Amino acid sequence: MNDVHEPLPDPAAALEARERELKLEVAPETLVRLAAALRERGAAKRGVAARLVSAYFDSDDRALKRAGVSLRIRRRGRGYVQTIKLGGAGVGMFDRAEWERRARGPELALSPGENLLLASALGCEPSALPALAPVFTTNVKRAVHLLQRGAFVVELALDEAAIELADARYAFAELEMELLGGTPEELFALARDLGSVAPLRLSALSKSARGYAALDGALGRPAKAGDAPIRAGMSVEEAFIAAATDCVVQFRLNEDVLLSAPEPKAVHQARVALRRLRSAFSLFKPVVSDARSEALRAELKWLAGSLGDARDLDVFAEGRLAALGEGDEPEPGLAALAARVERQRGEAYAAADAALRSPRARGLMLDLAEWLAIGPWRADAATADLRATAIEAFAADTLAKRRKKVKKAGKALAALDPHARHQARIEGKKLRYAADFFAEVFTEPKARKRQAAFAKHLAALQEHLGDLNDIATARARARWLAIDAAAEGDGDAAFAAGAIAGHADADARGLLAAAGKSYSALMKAEPYWR
Fold first, then answer.
1. What's the pLDDT tens digit per position in 167-187?
2. Is the pTM of this model over 0.85?
3. Cα dist. 399→142, 240, 411, 451 in Å?
4. Is the pLDDT of residue 326 over 70?
5. DSSP states of 262-308 as a string?
6. Where in the numbering of this chain does the CYTH domain appear (predicted)?
7. First to last CA, the chain
8. What residues have CB less than 8 Å from 423, skipping those under 6 apart?
9. Does residue 137 sit in helix, strand or coil?
10. What are the distances in angstroms from CA 414 to CA 396, 402, 427, 502?
11. How many CB atoms within 10 Å of residue 225?
12. Do 472 and 418 form a contact (C-beta atoms < 8 A)?
């Protein structure tokens, strides 16, 4: 956030200049209220609001983005500042290496030391650096305040901002809190205090990441899980942070969609993100268990549950109910049943929206960001060696254990009762999330080939078990709909609900056979992690 550090002499020295910053999304209309609250808390305004226009540079194939490098030239008034930021994957709380210096103008003119720094980040020789050009611009109106309480010093920037592309503009507002002195705990405490003044949401993206998302047309749209976040050579601690960060970002992106324009795909992907995150807690339990982890897991379960009814009704309406209307002669009572389902769906979406807008949900994301950054688990002497271990051995052991659990849970799959089958599905899901998290850890050609076969059979098993679970949920939903309709004298709707339950039973038999075949194929597939 600060202007301007002197040029650093070499790449190693650049790592000594770090930016520790907490980013929070705010509603633009609350910026004035937040500014007043900062003054009430003793923060001094630093000059008048400034206009900051920043051009971000990258290659045609976005080599800098892939390497976790942000390169920009920012204009403030008549002056220019060039900034390189390295790594520091995070969500909300960003801790990054930063190298800043004055620039002569808007054109990129890298020094030999900067070329060496970028080449090191990209894993190439300076002579092989790709051509770099502006890819997007941010336009920010910034008001800066400085708050000092003893050793605690924080610079607070209230930003009215926009990502500007050649043919589009995406506006947003942020509160950036840069820690200049004191502890991160004090920074999070201040954020919670300000959250009582106006709703503050953990920022899922840095401005550069937001710009790339805009380039991809991904802003404001449901977000699926991206590429595997864990890489070979990471420590176990780094791997968990990468996985958890990826999940929180996915959730926050879908939460933003739900808060502005609710839709079924965003509900589904928000729940997927939370399930992935809960699985990461389970997979990395030997290193992340501490006094706070179980409480966080419980809150994540609550948040996922708050979206569950909306998701179940989406599946029911778009699956079972839609299928009932196919053909030349739809089932009698379909329209009446559909109207009942839509009323329930509206109520479920309203309940989900209330949960997402609650201080409890906002506080959970802030608690999670703090725990990921400075939680007790990161300083536990008893797990220090395991946290520092390379991820390869941990991943292999974890995958082997999860496969063993699936093998045990899935025996005689066709004969299992619905509850036992659901448990098998849960174990399969944990194995699949583990396989997805660790997809880039085992990269030898032989491992890749085995991995593809393993992933194919695991995905098929999960699809069949997921469909069976949807059928069980639809059957229960249809039964209650029939009971309610009959109690209200709506015989046609009750009849249509009963027809859905009957169709579900017929479909389940074929899916059970397919799931059994997928399970056998998975158990025969060669483990790729050994």
1. 899 999 999 999 999 999 999
2. yes
3. 48, 15, 18, 12
4. no
5. --HHHHHHHHHHHHHHHHHHHHTHHHH-STTHHHHHHHHHHHHHHHH
6. 17-218
7. 46
8. 409
9. strand
10. 29, 21, 16, 19
11. 17
12. yes
